[in-house]
Design goal:
- The chain is of the alpha/beta class and 325 residues long.
- It has two domains: 24-71 and 149-316, Rossmann fold (3-Layer(aba) Sandwich); 74-129, no CATH class.
- The chain has 14 helices and eight strands.
- The protein has helices at residues 2-18, 30-43, 74-89, 97-103, 107-112, 114-125, 131-144, 160-171, 184-188, 191-195, 234-243, 258-265, 298-306, 313-316; strands spanning 57-60, 129-130, 175-183, 202-212, 219-228, 249-252, 272-277, 309-312.
- It has an eight-stranded mixed β-sheet, sandwiched between helices.
- The chain starts with a helix and ends in a 9-residue tail after the last helix.
Length: 325
């Protein structure tokens, strides 16, 4: 009898495991069903769409896809906080109007400076130190800074449904990569602790750098200037160079991710493009076509004809943050 009960208990346990919901924070909409159906199809050896484990690559944008990006990119907030500290120690670092505006917290002037101004802020605050020193500064900032709207630490503002999707894909033999316009060395600080994505699977924008060993211990320095911006058409180039394989799945949230999804889904065999549309003004933010950050216009217009899934945050996600709604 005991053996029979044990056998029955094991059967029940295995059955419960087999039907466990891999995406529990997602509502039961067609979006969730479409993702699961695609993954099951490409991982079933009996399926005509079967993808070998070696080719199972999934690429995710970071800002606005894996963690929040409003009211401005979190890396820019780090840069501004760092600039304030730098200028307090040495006011002469404020060599331009945009740097002075950033140090004073004048975000309207910073926004008006455009991409050129933002790159100047990043270049100034992300150079003149080793990679290790820079990443120590990032970690210190993440441990102390808080989001003005939620009061959460920035690396707590990751999306619980996306964490589940990353985990589900890895359970099904996928390797998950980040392909972000954000800084490579910035994202690598938290990618493993936040997403279980190791630093070597992070692709991002890169500043100029150099190696030095003549006047001290060997070190890699972060130098002024931008070497490569991993955004828009840059994303497929960087993914191909770093991974050497076209992803099977690409997930983004803005038109900056369009080319990544376009290139991914143009490959042979089964492919999936996914866009996250921020529609939840109560639990997060609602933005898209006219946003100053994370603009999503072409993606919304062409997703249907290209067969891409569009996640409606308000409709498709039961919760937003790991800590609650």
């Amino acid at each position: 009898m005991r053996a029979l009960l044990t056998s029955l208990s094991m059967t029940v346990f295995l059955a419960s495991v087999s039907v466990a919901d891999p995406l529990p924070s997602w509502t039961g909409t067609a979006t969730k069903a479409g993702i699961i159906a695609f993954v099951e199809r490409v991982t079933d050896p009996a399926s005509a769409d079967y993808v070998t484990p070696a080719a199972r690559i999934a690429a995710f944008d970071n800002d606005g896809t894996l963690w929040a990006e409003q009211p401005v990119y979190f890396q820019l907030l780090f840069a501004i906080d760092r600039l304030k500290e730098m200028s307090a120690a040495d006011p002469e670092v404020l060599t331009s109007d945009v740097l002075r505006a950033a140090a004073e917290g004048d975000m309207e002037a910073v926004a008006a400076s455009g991409t050129e101004g933002l790159l100047e802020i990043v270049s100034t605050t992300h150079s003149g130190l080793t990679v290790d020193e820079f990443q120590t500064e990032v970690r210190r900032w993440l441990d102390t800074a808080r989001h003005s709207g939620t009061g959460l630490a920035y690396d707590d503002m990751v999306y619980q449904p996306m964490l589940e999707l990353l985990s589900y894909l890895r359970d099904e033999g996928f390797r998950t990569y980040i392909a972000s316009g954000g800084g490579l060395h910035f994202i690598r600080v938290f990618s493993e602790s936040a997403y279980n994505i190791p630093p070597e699977q992070v692709i991002g924008s890169i500043g100029n750098g150099s190696y030095s060993a003549g006047d001290g211990p060997p070190r890699v320095m972060k130098d002024p200037g931008i070497f490569f911006i991993d955004d828009k058409a840059g994303k497929p180039v960087a993914i191909e160079a770093r991974i050497g394989r076209r992803p099977v799945i690409a997930v983004g949230n803005s038109d900056g991710d369009f080319q990544m999804l376009e290139w991914t889904t143009a490959g042979t065999g089964a492919r999936l493009g996914v866009l996250l549309h921020h529609t939840d003004s109560e639990r997060e933010y609602a933005y898209g076509r006219d946003s100053h950050i994370g603009q999503l216009e072409r993606g919304l217009d062409e997703a249907g004809s290209r067969g891409w899934l569009v996640i409606d945050m308000a409709r498709d996600w039961e919760r937003i943050w790991p800590s609650g709604e």
